[in-house]
Amino acid sequence: MAQTKIGVIGGSGLYEIEGLQDAVWVKVETPWGAPSDEVLTGRLDGVEMVFLPRHGRGHVHSPTEVPYRANIDALKRLGVTDVVSVSACGSFREEMAPGDFVIVDQFIDRTFAREKSFFGTGCVAHVSVAHPTCPRLGDACETAAREAGINVHRGGTYLAMEGPQFSTLAESRMYREAWGADVIGMTNMPEAKLAREAELCYASVAMVTDYDSWHPHHGEVDISDIIAILMGNADKGRAMVSRLPALLGADRAPCPHGCDRALDHAILTAPERRDPDLVAKLDAVAGRVL
Ligand SMILES: CSC[C@H]1O[C@H](OP(=O)(O)O)[C@H](O)[C@@H]1O
Ligand SMILES: Nc1ncnc2[nH]cnc12
């Protein structure tokens, strides 16, 4: 049976995790450039784990400049099977309060200044992202969060904005009232799309820091308020992550939702028309089918 390897992408406030056995920071090179930082590898409860700080230690990369393709490639290259994305977010729902976690299951992608695919001229592929997150991995995140005593909401739509500025009041109201988004952040796209292209199970845990700017009693979003909440959220995020290995187990059955077979029928470019340079770059991401 295949072995589980959990990849955790830590967002704002979550730049390391503790308690890994044989923990070592490792530099990974990818055909898509350097990932956000070195990755922390180790084992917890007999399960291999890899941690990558999305913005780099010390928060170096802006949401637009995070090297999303290199990050996902690096995790895949290291043998990661399941990616848990942990992110700060604003909330559009009264009941999704600062300090709560939301297991996101849908996205609205409003980003526009990022590379969104590993594929392109010389190797064209179309994967489905109708269901962009993995329910099996979401189950584990939900259980882990509940066990850690976190107020967790299952299901929610994450509006991915370009940033780095926060939304205007008009945008905030539109996303909430007309578009039905539940939370807002700047990083889960194209991350989730790339994880699907790389045949990785992907779950997004959004940690609420604020009510964006729509809320009549909370005023506009303020970075100093966010930072105050972020620190507590990061501790809760670590508590959740530390429970995942025991819940997922070391032996891994194929994903019942097909995340790990997303490329089975996705590549359209005829073998004789494929660009050998691009095919070489896809060795980790799509090596299974190329
Ligand atoms: C902390 S303020 C905005 C910043 O926080 C979120 O980052 P991440 O998703 O990596 O946790 C948000 O997307 C912005 O990048
Ligand atoms: N209100 C907000 N908008 C976008 N990204 C965020 N990250 C945390 N809070 C946010």
TrEMBL record:
Catalytic reaction(s) noted: S-methyl-5'-thioadenosine + phosphate = 5-(methylsulfanyl)-alpha-D-ribose 1-phosphate + adenine
Positions of the record's site feature: Important for substrate specificity: S167, I223
Record Gene3D superfamilies: Nucleoside phosphorylase domain
Keyword DNA-binding in record: no
Enzyme Commission code(s) on record: 2.4.2.28
Residues at which substrate binds: M186, D210, Y211, D212
Domain Nucleoside phosphorylase: 5-227
CDD domains per the UniProt record, alphabetical: MTAP_SsMTAPII_like_MTIP (cd09010)
InterPro entries in the record: MTAP, Nucleoside_phosphorylase_d, Nucleoside_phosphorylase_sf
Function noted in UniProt: Catalyzes the reversible phosphorylation of S-methyl-5'-thioadenosine (MTA) to adenine and 5-methylthioribose-1-phosphate. Involved in the breakdown of MTA, a major by-product of polyamine biosynthesis. Responsible for the first step in the methionine salvage pathway after MTA has been generated from S-adenosylmethionine. Has broad substrate specificity with 6-aminopurine nucleosides as preferred substrates.
Protein name according to UniProt: S-methyl-5'-thioadenosine phosphorylase
Species of the source: Jhaorihella thermophila
Annotated gene: mtnP
